[in-house]
Amino acid sequence: xxxxxxxxxxxxxxxxxxxxxxxxxxxxxxxxxxxxxxxxxxxxxxxxxxxxxxxxxxxxxxxxxxxxxxxxxxxxxxxxxxxxxxxxxxxxxxxxxxxxxxxxxxxxxxxxxxxxxxxxxxxxxxxxxxxxxxxxxxxxxxxxxxxxxxxxxxxxxxxxxxxxxxxxxxxxxxxxxxxxxxxxxxxxxxxxxxxxxxxxxxxxxxxxxxxxxxxxxxxxxxxxxxxxxxxxxxxxxxxxxxxxxxxxxxxxxxxxxxxxxxxxxxxxxxxxxxxxxxxxxxxxxxxxxxxxxxxxxxxxxxxxxxxxxxxxxxxxxxxxxxxxxxxxxxxxxxxxxxxxxxxxxxxxxxxxxxxxxxxxxxxxxxxxxxxxxxxxxxxxxxxxxxxxxxxxxxxxxxxxxxxxxxxxxxx
Length: 411
Known about the structure:
With 411 residues, this protein is mostly helical.
């Protein structure tokens, strides 16, 4: 009953705040208050939800899956939301372009809380998996609309720095919510689901601290498609996530074979996330010096070296160095593809393009699970991931050369 009452209250709050905001906009013309620190903090908090969607139940997965009646498909509880992002990504993009990033984010956060926390009341394979699939759709809206609002409030260098902070928030969210989820799982298998209500907390913060952005002028609407420029960016995002999550999937199994405990494995994965945060912080400076494509090449060189070290490591210090390079690859690539998508998108189609990017990112996370089918032992799989990273470098280099030649003036 409390859950239903809270749902109705939040829906009513969205409608009231939307009406009040529209009245303010109407009275002031097209001017909108700038985004203050509390609003920026809110949008960075929204970024944490994208990685939180699967990780909050991971520590207690062995107890949660049987309690929900899906013990035979425990891993699907983590991966199905990624599939939901891919399935509902196009719809999320059209909703953002139709209703605006602010309204879409508000309803996305509302649905995130309902579908995430509401899963604790369901039981059985089909009900649970449908809920997790729809939760992925809400995540697609939240992820795309959040980045869309950042792109509306920030421009040029400020935008690049804010998107870098967004990448840092994503990784920090993984560290923080994995830790909290583990603590809550020791109390009861139900408690980790409460973390999904962070969507409602951030919704209330959005209603209070994030103003409506300025609506685009008619002259700003794109007249030519930009998908040809963005397709390589989407592919780079997908390949980056495959390269990163292949290691994240294999490292626990490798450590188990080496007799390293679960706690030490968790520390190492958290260490990789912290390195990714640092790499994301320096990414804007690297991009200014080298440009977007060269920075992406460096990121995949880091992935290449990391997987080779994982494959042939004979001592733990070498594996640690591989973890540093893996984190650098993620921190230099994922925030950058976010920025490149925004930079090459007109306002009128930005929501749709960001939704396609979310699809690419979560497709890479989903496809990484198939890397384990590479024949041979774990070392062979790491070698296969290194080969993929090397081919990704070649793909980005070839794309850069092709775009440079197309942009050269004809004589």
